[in-house]
Amino acid sequence: MSLRFRNELRMELRMRSCQVELRGRGWNPQPLAVANGTGSGVAALNSALQGLQLTELDSMPSVARLTVADEYVHHALLQLEPGSDMRQALEQAREHYALALQRDDLRVQVMPLGRSGRWLAAAVIDSDLQAWCATLEAAGVQLTHLHTALIEDLRLLADQVTEDDAVIALLREEGMSLVRLKDGLPMALAWERLDTSQPGLLEQRLRAFVREAASQVGVGRQCVVYLLPESRALCRCVWDGRDLPGLLPLPQEAIGSRQMASPPPWSDTAQIPTEELAEQLRETGRRQAPAPARASGG
Questions:
Q1: 255-to-46, 174, 198, 231, 276 alpha-carbon distances in Å
Q2: Each residue of 22-64: pLDDT tens digit?
Q3: d(CA 74, CA 69)
Q4: In whole angstroms, how large is the CA radius of gyration of the chain?
Q5: One fold for both 8-69+124-147+261-286 and 160-255?
Q6: Would you state the pLDDT for residue 4?
Q7: I need a labelling partner for 232 at 20 to 30 A (CA). Which of 41, 148, 179, 251 fits?
Q8: CATH topology for the 8-69+124-147+261-286 domain
Q9: How many angstroms separate the CA atoms of 173 and 27, rounded?
Q10: Using an 8 Å Cβ cutoff, are 267 and 152 in contact?
Q11: What is the model's pLDDT at position 115?
Q12: In the prediction, which pLDDT does 241 show?
């Protein structure tokens, strides 16, 4: 838990809902106020802010941290030469997304994974980011930190996953994020869009990922699997590689709002800093501004 020198908003944007917490200055982990909003994207964000304003709130904080669901983000693992700096990693990440997604309207961030030369990249669509910023600015709030649910969940699970080699499955509203750990660091990463209410389909995709990751990273067929459902009750099981039914004790509860956890004090390694964010927005505005009309000769 980090020390807060001013009040701030902690917001978590999902595909069809948004949760916002008002955190006061100091060390107190308990929020001063909580509100939830429903809708899609910006509509949920705006609804949550309006709900917070209806509480007994003296004034709205001027800054906010926003964590966005995996469905809004493109994640990728990059392998660079050990000792590569952030500029080199960022350049390679942008090249990767341009080639893989055939688009150049992404805001990209990178995070080093130890000293392995591996980097975790995250990209959001520029128009989404601008819409989130505009919604917050309309309420008098500035977005200072942008986080992804995948990275935050991996940090929060670090103390609970005791094996150096394991698979982590994070259930989301519209699919599942899969991470294969080797030597305690992510080695393989995948996003599976599926109906998570169908246990058979979920288990089929998970088995396929375990087999593919095992063949790529050189680990055995036996695998420890951690499953984090929306209820936040972490499940652990061991799969010996055989095609036996019932790989996971899959939870059947309905998807609902989860309790938001406070980012640890070192979570700012995967953020879009305020200065960079402001400069990127200004640069976008300059590119989109119409060219001045030329005076016609007489």
A1: 21, 10, 13, 7, 35
A2: 988 777 778 889 999 999 999 999 999 999 988 877 788 999 9
A3: 10
A4: 21
A5: yes
A6: 64
A7: 41
A8: Nucleotidyltransferase; domain 5 (3.30.420)
A9: 32
A10: yes
A11: 85
A12: 63
Kindly list the domain boundaries of the chain, sorted by start residue. 8-69+124-147+261-286, 160-255
Residue type, 121: A
Q: Is 283 exposed, middle or buried (0-12, 13-18, 19+ CB in 10 A)?
A: exposed
Fold category of 160-255 in CATH: Nucleotidyltransferase; domain 5 (3.30.420)
The segments of the chain whose pLDDT lies below 70 read 1-5, 216-222, 240-298
